[in-house]
UniProtKB/TrEMBL annotation:
Keyword vocabulary terms for this entry: DNA-binding, Transcription, Transcription regulation
Protein's name in the database: Putative DNA-binding transcriptional regulator YafY
Domain HTH deoR-type: 7-62
Single Gene Ontology MF annotation: DNA binding
Pfam annotation, one family: HTH_11
Organism field: Kribbella antiqua
Length: 320
């Protein structure tokens, strides 16, 4: 009887070979695996049983070829490929491609499950050599990002030191999602000491550690929407709401996501929610967008419109 472990290792090796090159002939695979062409054919059938589409063609230029599946199949990576993939994902986590940051962190957490310990220090050393220019997000420690991603994935509590006013306090949270804005990384988490949802800037965290206590996930707000509203409005003294006579698509192209929340009303109007330490400041930003608008909230915002209008009219009057 054929050794089951030896068969499994050989089939995995065959899969790795098929992922390396587009077409292999039967004799080539047999030579690489040290078996007969008949054994290669049996191993190909084993892969097909597992859901891999392995095509076989006859004649000149024919051979075995791994085709696309209905689902993404597992990839076999050697040490160098695993290191390169992890470093690329770490770089992508801080990139500027829409959605790439979140996808990179999700992929990293999956790779983290299977990455051998002997490779971790190499990944860490190489990721430290990756730099970027031309803006991008505020840099964060890749170890911190991974620790939080693991805690979200494994549903375990996390703790970290975080500035609050003039002091730094220890926070205990149930981490839910990492969210990337156009400028920074944030963690949406349930704050156990304040008994409420909070968003935290990852670059402000220190002494980050996952705990061993598991939690049952609560009903959570939409992570991206919650963090965007926190960043654009809730953290400021004043929250202003406007009705703009322009499409949401047009206004979103003018405003960074971290500066305002834009909600579509219809094809020609939208609401803009933004915060600032001064109503005059946020009002002038909306004026400079160049669209007709109405001040909705707070009530004193309309008073500031009249005051600024009088100032502008006065400034336009010729001095005799």
């Amino acid at each position: 009887m054929e050794d089951e472990r030896g068969t499994t290792e050989r089939v995995l090796t065959l899969l790795g070979l098929l992922q390396q090159r587009q077409v292999w002939t039967g004799p080539e695979l047999a030579a690489r695996l040290g078996v007969t062409p008949r054994t290669v054919r049996r191993d190909v059938e084993r892969l097909r049983t597992l859901g891999y589409q392995v095509h076989a063609s006859q004649g000149v230029g024919g051979g075995y070829q791994l085709g696309p599946g209905q689902d993404l199949p597992p990839l076999l990576l050697d040490d160098d490929e695993a290191i390169a993939t992890a470093v690329s994902l770490l770089a992508g986590a801080g990139g500027e491609v829409a959605g790439a940051g979140e996808a990179a962190v999700r992929a990293l957490t999956k790779l983290d499950r299977v990455l051998p310990t002997r490779l971790r220090h190499e990944v860490r050393a190489l990721s430290g050599s990756v730099e970027s220019f031309g803006g991008g997000r505020t840099p964060v420690d890749s170890d911190v990002l991974m620790a939080l991603a693991r805690a979200c994935r494994d549903e375990v509590e996390a703790g970290f030191d975080y500035p609050s006013g003039d002091e730094v306090r220890r926070r205990r949270v149930e981490p839910y999602r990492l969210v990337a804005s156009d400028r920074r990384w944030y963690l949406l988490a349930y704050d156990l000491d304040r008994d409420d949802w909070r968003s935290f800037r990852v670059d402000r965290m220190t002494e980050v550690a996952a705990r061993t206590w598991h939690f049952h996930p609560r009903e959570a707000p939409d992570a991206a929407s919650y963090v965007q509203e926190s960043v654009a409005s809730r953290v400021y003294r004043y929250q202003a709401r406007f009705l703009l006579h322009a499409s949401a698509e047009t206004v979103r192209a003018q405003l960074p996501a971290s500066a305002a929340v834009v909600r579509e009303r219809d094809s020609e109007t939208c609401e803009v929610l933004s915060g600032a330490g001064s109503l005059d400041f946020v009002l002038m930003h909306v004026v400079l967008l160049g669209h007709p608008f109405e001040a909705l909230d707070p009530p004193e915002l309309r008073d500031r419109c009249r005051v600024l209008a009088d100032r502008l009219l006065s400034a336009s009057t010729e001095v005799s």
